[in-house]
TrEMBL record:
Keyword Ribonucleoprotein: no
Gene Ontology terms, MF aspect: ABC-type transporter activity
Annotated transmembrane regions: 12-33, 45-70, 91-114, 120-143, 155-176, 225-245
KW Membrane (keyword) present: yes
Signal peptide: none
Lineage of source species: Bacteria, Pseudomonadati, Bacteroidota, Cytophagia, Cytophagales
Species of provenance: Pontibacter ramchanderi
UniProt keyword list: Membrane, Transmembrane, Transmembrane helix
GO cellular component: plasma membrane
Name the UniProt record assigns to this protein: Cu-processing system permease protein
Amino acid sequence: MKKIIKYVLYDIVRNKIVVAYTLFLLLLSVGLFNLGSSPEKGLLSLLNLVLLTVPLISIVFATTHFYNSYEFMELLVSQPIKRSKIFMSEYLGVTLSLSAALVIGMGIPVMLFAPGATGLYLVLTGVFITFIFVALAFLASVLTRDKAKGIGIALLLWFYFALIYDGIVLFILYSFADYPLEYATLTMTALNPVDLGRIMVLLNLDVSALMGYTGALYKSIFGSMWGIVSAFGVMLLWVTIPLITSRNIFQKRDL
């Protein structure tokens, strides 16, 4: 399994897309911190862009890589290697390379310009988002052998979590404004890893006061160490469920 992961990592680095991704994040991070009047504003701007671009790049790159690796996986399947090991090696190779790019490209500027818990949460959120959307990309890839359809499903997933979901939540909150929806809002937040990551970082930027009673509720739940662990536990579920589902489909399907 280690040899397969090393080969996948080597193949990805040789492709130079991850290198370009690292440079993009590095330039973006340094630029936003230099443009912002304070480290907090730089973190806030970086958060908004990261939660939009990192899921998109992760899901598109992972889906494309999966389809481009079909011949390699077919070769490995013909060998006495378990399919689960092949699948997990591909997944870990992609996630580790993209996570390393994020830690280098975004983590280093964050630690230089805004060291502290908030910056650490931002980097951890970015890593979790990477793992989650690569898992979703692999799920989309195993659902169909058609590359165009697979990329289309992946883009729809990104579009839903990054853009459409917030609109649905706002519509629900507006339609049922006369009812107490604080705990319902909390549940809806947990159903979207992008929103969950955003809330985690925003609470550490001390902007919960601007979010009214719901912000106070978020602060009371996610402000403690137990709340933080629970939030990252939910994000871990977002990694595990699509990953196990896609792995099971991969084990049963014909390549």
